[in-house]
Fold this sequence. Notes:
The chain is an alpha/beta fold. The protein has helices at residues 31-45, 56-61, 83-96, 126-141, 204-212, 232-236, 304-312, 317-325, 341-344, 403-416, 446-452, 467-479, 507-513, 528-540, 553-564; strands spanning 72-77, 118-123, 148-152, 158-163, 175-180, 195-199, 221-225, 251-256, 265-266, 271-272, 345-346, 356-362, 370-383, 386-397, 424-427, 458-460, 481-484, 489-492, 494-497. Residues 266, 268-269, 271, 292, 294-295, 297 line the site of zinc ion.
Amino acid sequence: MARKAAAPKTSLIDGVDLQGYVEGDPSSFKPDQLDKIREKISGYMKLGLLKMNRAQIPFIRIKNKRGRTPRTRVFESGNQVGKTTIGVAEDIAHAMGFRPWLDDTDPDYKINVRVPNNGIVGCEVAGQTLAQRIEPEFMALIPEYCGVTVTRYSDGSLKSLHLANDFNGKPCGSTIHFRSYVQPAESYEGTVLDWIHFDEPPPSDILTAATRGLMSTNGPLWLTMTPLKEPYIYDLFSMHAFNQGGDDQEIAVFRGSTWDNCQDWCRACDVTVPENDPDKLAAGQVRPVDLCPKCREVMGFLPRAGIENYLKKITDPDEREAREEGKWKHLSGLVYKELDRDKHLYNDFTIPADWMRIEVLDPHDARPCCWLFGAVSPEEIIINGKPANRIYWYTYLRPSGNIDAIARQVKIKRAEHNYKEPAMVIIDVKFAAAEKPLHGEHFPSWEEELEKAGIKHIVHSCSAPGDVTLGHKRVKEYLAPHYSAVRGTEFPGMMFAKQGTSGENGPMQHMSNYSWKEGTDKPEEKYKDFCDCIRYAALEQPTYDRPKPEIDEEFARMLIARNSMKQEENPLYHGLSIR
Ligand SMILES: [Zn+2]
């Protein structure tokens, strides 16, 4: 046990061959001796001289409305932004209780954490990631005089790192533990933790197990990652981050682009900084100009040509968005990327009489409405862990005119498809009676007026906060393959009629073109109407109920007459060819 501050055990001249040096006379150092000493100084000082780029600064300095660092910080960034470096620097800073690269008068210098402490660093695969990326970052940043001792797993990868001294040479005693995502979740439990850092997104069971260890200390958590995997992180954290319009003051998210780390070009201003051109710098020389001359944001450490060369090699546009912009792979480009004409289209067939009919209405005052017709088959699937049934969308209408005229068109469509009343008509809740009175004379609301026109079984769409994101998730669940016992194979939980849902401004066109608005978490307005309908239906998650006999006897007779003309067959095999 150290009773007093352990003095640095090595000095600047240790290990340097000092032949010819006259003690007390620095001018007697030979050039190569000076180079070696300079190298040692910069090695010692790397953590102290760490310069943050414009993406890293807010990650360190952000405060919530209570003036505190939020408990959870998610650094979702492109490649080469320096996310691992700043994450590791933050690890060491927490182990020491202060940030050595800031001035000791800086408000963010001191960290509110007990020292000594225990922290955990989680990363993807112990062997490779730890040995090649994480361990070198730690070893480069921690000066020798901090007295690092390590333990290792049997494969040689880092298990723990103990710091005898802090950056100022005072006793520290903190331990940093290393775990990978291939280790069982339980290996993250058991230690009382003061902080956690995940490098790249962890699987959810590991996140749960590790954060359990943080409970008693209410310690901080930070994630540094390229948002390519584990989209649950987006739902759990990113969506709620207060600095992105979310509702949780203890969560902040940071989006860093690779361009935030560019040394000779400011993308925001389209300004080139010729002094920082790597061709004009000596090898290893740090770029001389710190700030963009226009926006005064700090410049980075990568040459423009190098970034361009790297990005050029990424051919998948979604992957490029994630690796360049730090934008969630599942939030770029098309909303329903999984939609595949070969898998989600079926050859139109007559919907069997015992399938349950549903309809969805997205009303519009100024342009034609969207009215979507679906059939819920008796075949069970599981959505969101609960029983559901496969849905076949078989036709649609874009009716316009007054509500009576619209209702008439709908009733004709129903008759064409051999039924009179669906089990439910899901309507956008904004147009429900209590929500929105329709402008103009005697129309009280779409809902009331539709009921007057004989449209029954109206159900309001779900519209709680967060339901849009949840709805996309549910639709994706429906679009995913689900096992069919009848067909003995997997196919999607939602199918679209090849003819019935085709056409300009039809459901298939909308679903296949629905896209995210560049740089936001929201989809474009274009093509949204039928996608809204399908989302309402997915959130409603209708379950099959055998249709009640129609009350209209004449209609029932008509149906019987029609059905008796067809031969007996199992409705579940109906129309679908097995691919
Ligand atoms: Zn600028």
